[in-house]
């Protein structure tokens, strides 16, 4: 059975570097036989978490949508920018809303984490922060992560990492993750 993935970049920006990097990872995953639901984070539009709002109206449609899409797959590929050495607020907010769902859609899923930023660290510190809520919510986060330094220069016109070694590392990591995701799914 093919591995089913939900992939999204945690950026709303049209020219998001993380969305561009995600595109390369998704292409590799599809080449390796995975089925990928490639989402745009705008599809998960939702208010800031407010328990009063939840008590009044329930979980908002954008968070329900994310929960449904997560429930339908084996694993996630998330490309996330690093904001202030952590994850962007939109992603933490989305995870907080999804954590309120009684169906616990993240429980038992796996995830591969990617990042790129304009700096030499490539957003890697943000991914370490992102591991915490994901793991608490029951996700097996693949140990190796992929961070591309100076993404504004390191992606080519077709959004592949232009350095062949960086490109190959991404391809190999996607393959290794898919193997694990398939095994975890049983
Ligand atoms: C609020 C904010 C905080 C940021 N903090 C960091 C940071 O801590 N480390 C870093 O490498 N880049 C930081 N950046 C730069 C982002 O990594 C860069 O803008 C990146 O391109 C954002 O991802 P995107 O292109 O996918 O939207 C920050 C950007 C913003 C807007």
Quick recap of the structure?
The protein is α/β, with parallel strands linked by helices. It has helices at residues 17-31, 51-57, 61-71, 89-99, 124-136, 151-154, 164-185; strands spanning 4-9, 35-38, 75-79, 110-116, 140-141, 146-148.
Describe the structure.
The chain is of the alpha/beta class and 186 residues long. Helix content is 45%, strand content 15%. Strands 1, 2, 3, 4, 5 and 6 form a 6-stranded parallel β-sheet that branches. The mean pLDDT is 97. The site of flavin mononucleotide (FMN) has 16 residues, from helix 1. Flavin mononucleotide binds at residues 9, 11, 13, 16-18, 81-85, 117-119, 121, 123.
Please render the helix and strand layout as text.
Blueprint: E1 4-9, H1 17-31, E2 35-38, H2 51-57, H3 61-71, E3 75-79, H4 89-99, E4 110-116, H5 124-136, E5 140-141, E6 146-148, H6 151-154, H7 164-185
The chain binds flavin mononucleotide.
